[in-house]
Design brief:
The chain has about 160 residues and is an alpha+beta fold. About 30% of the residues lie in helices and about 35% in strands. The protein has five helices and eight strands. The chain has helices at about 10-15, 20-45, 80-90, 120, 130; strands at about 45-60, 65-70, 75-80, 95-100, 105-110, 110-120, 135-140, 145-150. Strands 4-1-3-7 form a four-stranded mixed beta sheet. A four-stranded antiparallel beta sheet has the order 2-8-6-5. Strand 5 and strand 6 (about 110-120) form a beta hairpin. The mean pLDDT is about 80.
Length: about 160
């Protein structure tokens, strides 16, 4: 059988000489090892990450209805070791924060009833793994407002 090409490009990069082949494999193994060390060093540093959580208001009195909410989601900014943040992003990603209506403070403005809660009061309601080891830098918005109206009665008298 005839050779179509006299030399191939693969022979230049992967020669048949065992000494040269060993040098190439040694070089690539050290490149891989340096990447591994770089990854370990970067994952052991402190970093910040933002988590967006949906808001769920529970235990609303039966005679009241939430008309409007100032924000549907809150953003929690955490600072922790990168491995912990990486774990939280992939494995234990928090989806929502459950806020008890009783923790909201009432105000009345021009005949409208509003309730509010501050960011510091939201922190204890976050999922526990978010505030056990990482440091919470901020919660945005810093105040959450609810516009409340009275529930309408059924026409049947229920």
């Amino acid at each position: 059988m005839k050779k179509i090409f006299k030399t191939t490009n693969a022979e230049k990069f992967f020669p048949k000489d065992p000494k040269r082949k060993k040098k190439i494999y040694t070089f690539f193994s050290f490149v891989l090892l340096s990447i591994l060390f770089w990854l370990i060093i970067n994952l052991s540093r402190e970093n910040e990450a933002n988590f967006n959580l949906e808001i769920n208001v529970s235990n609303t009195p039966a005679d009241l209805v939430i008309d409007k909410m100032s924000h549907e989601k809150i953003t929690v900014n955490l600072q922790a070791v990168s491995t912990r943040l990486f774990y939280m992003q992939l494995v234990r990603r928090p989806g929502y924060v459950d806020l008890d209506f009783a923790r909201f403070h009432p105000i009345e403005i021009n005949g409208n009833f509003y309730y509010f809660i501050t960011g510091r009061q939201i922190i204890p309601n976050l999922p526990s793994f978010m505030y056990e080891k990482p440091e919470i830098i901020s919660v945005k918005p810093d105040t959450l407002f609810l516009k409340i109206k009275e529930a309408e009665k059924n026409r049947n008298g229920d």
